[in-house]
Amino acid sequence: MTSAPLTVPARPYDFTFDPATTALVVIDMQRDFMEPGGFGESLGNDVSQLRSTIEPLKAVFAAARAAGLTVIHTREGHLPDLSDLPPAKLNRGNATLKIGDVGPKGRILIRGEYGQDIIDELAPIEGEFVVDKPGKGAFYATSFGDILTEKGIRSLIVTGVTTEVCVHTTVREANDRGYECLVLSDCVGSYFPEFQRVALEMIAAQGGIFGWVAPSAALIEALAPLSAASAAQ
Predict the structure, then answer these.
(1) Do 174 and 181 touch, CB atoms closer than 8 A?
(2) Residue 141 contacts residue 10 (beta carbons within 8 Å)
(3) Residue 167 gets which letter from DSSP?
(4) Is 151 in the active site?
(5) Separation between Cα atoms, residue 228 and residue 233, nearest integer Å
(6) Residue of 98, 117, 132, 166 marked catalytic
C-alpha cells in the first residue's frame, strides 16, 4: 500500500491520513441492535432508525477493502455465565428482556448467540479483525488496543452504532490515546435523531475536540485512486 497521505474534506477542517496506518472501525453492527427481537428493541427503541447506515457502509467496505485498509469490527456482548457483566449494567433500565435472557435470536447480548453476531449485510471477510467487548468502548477489556499497536495504526475511520454511546465512547477513548478519528456521519446511527445530530456536533466542536466528521462519499472519493489501482492489478 502507498504511504502517500490522502485528504478528506471534513469538519472542522480537512482530515489527512496515511492509508497504511489507518483502520476502518465498524462498531457493533449486530442483530441485537439492528433487527427486531434484539436488545435494542427490548429497550423500546425503533430499530429501523439504524438501518439507514447499512447501504453507505457497504460502499465504504468496498472502497476500504479495495484500498487495503485494516478493517476491525466490534461486537458488544458478554460471556455465557455473565461473569463479565456488572450488576449495574444488567439491572439498569426497564427492558422487557435483560441481557442473558432468551429472545427470538437467542440469549440477548451473549457471545456466540445469533443475535450478538454482525448482520449479514456487513459480515466480516477473511483477514478482518472481530473484537468482542463487554463495555461500550472498544478499548476496555479487549484486544483492540493491541491490534492497533501491532498494525501500526495511528488514524481511525469510525462507523457503527450507536453514535452517542459506543461510537462516542470509542472515539473519546481513542482521542485520549493519541489516535486521530474521522467519524463518517452517514455510517453511524442513533435510535434518536436529536442525539445523532448533537453527538456529531460534539465530535467536531472546538476545533475538533474529539475528531473530524465527514460524509462517507468524501472518504470514498479520497480512496478512489487506491481502489482503482487495486482493481487494475
Answers:
(1) yes
(2) no
(3) I
(4) no
(5) 9
(6) 166
The verdict on whether 14 is a catalytic residue reads: no
Strands 6-8 and 15-17: antiparallel
- From the list 28, 32, 117, 132, the catalytic residue is 28
Burial of 170 (0-12, 13-18, 19+ CB in 10 A): buried
Which cell is 12 given?
Answer: 472542522
Residue 87 makes CB contacts below 8 A (sequence gap 6+) with: none
Identify the active-site residue in 98, 105, 132, 133.
133
CA distance 115 to 79: 14
Has 28 been annotated as catalytic? yes
Residue 67's pLDDT is what?
96
Q: How confident is the model at residue 197 (pLDDT cuts 50, 70, 90)?
A: very high
pLDDT at 1 over 60: no
CA distance 117 to 105: 10
Q: What mean pLDDT is reported for the chain?
A: 95
The answer, as to whether pTM is greater than 0.85, is yes
Around 73, how many Cα atoms within 13 Å sit in the side-chain half-sphere? 19
- Residue 163 in this model has a pLDDT that exceeds 70: yes
pLDDT given at position 161? 98
